[in-house]
């Protein structure tokens, strides 16, 4: 009898533990599945103010830096009704989506889904932009939505952001990169609202880091050139005319007249820093953007 009671109690305890573990796994599973979340429905100017605008899952930033950057994001929302978000994560592929709970294998689709199903965007068109950085494969993505596709267009604005921000990611200057990101988005949206969106016919001034690197390169090349010229000048010796020089020059001219030169054209194509991310995610909303590696 005692043995049967012990076995019964053990089975009951095992069943209870199984239920608890299954519940925990189900909860974690649901948390990781973005598309299990309902899409938010907003009116004009409405948005979820409780969501963090700086989601630093990878702990790249200090609490003070997060707070400062979040304030910048709130300023953009307050002044222009435009959402601006940063997300850092170890691996975007850890998130799941779809009916069969597939893992993401494309950071661009993940960026679109994260923006939509987490509830970002302002107003009925969900105006805003998201900047995702994933450290597992050192990838990034921009996702624009609503008015973001016009204010920061794929044809100009997103590429401009890549040129300005990706070099800082490559150098490991993460806080500086995100700080500049919010400044750049503010400039783009402000110009779009007060004048017209930046574009090829209405370009934004080049990123400051381009001028800095250009000036530094110019100085370095100038110093190197001066050193080479100084060295060559000090190696020169006075050359005296010789009678045999005339015959040498005559032979050289005759040989030169018989030479044939071939010419060829070389075409260079600029390499894009990322791939276009227009289209949309699982929600069916239209998005713009771009993605790549750093």
CATH C-level label of the domain at 41-208 and 274-293: Alpha Beta
What is the C-alpha radius of gyration, as a whole number of Å? 30 Å
Please count the helical segments: 8
Largest sheet: 6 strands, mixed
Average residue-wise pLDDT: 79
CATH topology of the domain at 41-208 and 274-293: Diaminopimelate Epimerase, Chain A, domain 1
Number of strand segments: 8
Widest sheet: strand ordering: 1-2-5-6-8-7
Helix-strand sequence:
HEHEEEHEEHHHHHEE
Give the N-terminus to C-terminus distance in angstroms. Answer: 68 Å
SS-derived structural category: alpha/beta
Sheet-strand content, in percent, reads 5-15%
For the record, the CATH architecture of the domain at 41-208 and 274-293 stands as Roll
pLDDT below 50 for ≥5 consecutive residues: which ranges? 10-30, 209-217, 255-273
Q: Roughly what percent helix?
A: 40-55%
Shape by Cα distribution: globular
In terms of topology, how is this protein built?
Layout: H1 2-32, E1 54-56, H2 63-80, E2 83-89, E3 96-97, E4 102-103, H3 107-117, E5 128-134, E6 139-145, H4 148-151, H5 157-170, H6 174-194, H7 208-235, H8 245-258, E7 275-276, E8 287-293
Parallel strand pairs: 1-2, 2-5
Antiparallel strand pairs: 3-4, 5-6, 6-8, 7-8
Task: Characterise this structure.
The chain has 294 residues and is α/β, with parallel strands linked by helices. The chain has a domain at 41-208 and 274-293: Diaminopimelate Epimerase, Chain A, domain 1. Helices cover 48% and strands 13% of the residues. The chain contains 8 helices and 8 strands. The strands form 2 sheets. The chain has a 6-stranded mixed sheet with strand order 1-2-5-6-8-7, sandwiched between helices. It has a two-stranded antiparallel ribbon with strand order 3-4. A hairpin with a 4-residue loop joins strand 5 and strand 6. Helix 2 (63-80) runs parallel beside helix 6 and helix 5 runs antiparallel to helix 6 (174-194). The longest helix has 31 residues, at 2-32. It is globular and about 75 Å long. It starts with a helix and ends with a strand.
């Amino acid at each position: 009898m005692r043995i049967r009671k012990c076995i019964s109690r053990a089975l009951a305890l095992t069943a209870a533990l199984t239920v608890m573990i299954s519940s925990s796994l189900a909860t974690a599973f649901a948390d990781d599945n973005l598309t299990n979340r309902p899409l938010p429905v907003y009116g004009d100017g409405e948005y979820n103010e409780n969501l963090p605008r700086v989601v630093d899952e990878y702990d790249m930033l200090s609490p003070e830096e997060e707070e400062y950057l979040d304030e910048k994001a709130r300023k953009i929302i307050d002044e222009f009704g435009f959402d601006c978000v940063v997300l850092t994560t170890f691996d975007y592929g850890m998130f799941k989506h779809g009916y069969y709970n597939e893992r993401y294998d494309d950071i661009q689709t993940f960026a679109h889904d994260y923006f939509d199903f987490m509830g970002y965007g302002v107003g009925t068109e969900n105006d805003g932009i998201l900047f995702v950085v994933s450290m597992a494969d050192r990838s990034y993505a921009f996702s624009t939505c609503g008015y973001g596709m016009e204010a920061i267009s794929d044809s100009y604005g997103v590429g401009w952001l890549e040129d300005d921000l990706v070099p800082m990611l490559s150098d490991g200057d993460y806080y500086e990169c995100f700080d500049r990101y919010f400044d750049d988005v503010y400039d783009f949206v402000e110009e779009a609202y007060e004048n017209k969106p930046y574009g090829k016919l209405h370009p934004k001034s080049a990123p400051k880091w381009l001028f800095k690197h250009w000036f530094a390169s110019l100085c370095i090349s100038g110093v190197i050139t001066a050193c080479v010229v100084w060295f060559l000048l000090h190696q020169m010796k006075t050359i005296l005319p010789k009678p045999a020089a005339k015959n040498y020059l005559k032979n050289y001219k005759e040989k030169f007249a018989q030479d044939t030169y071939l010419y060829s054209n070389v075409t260079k194509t600029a390499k894009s820093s990322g791939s276009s991310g227009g289209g949309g995610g699982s929600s069916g909303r239209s998005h713009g953007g771009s993605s790549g590696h750093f």
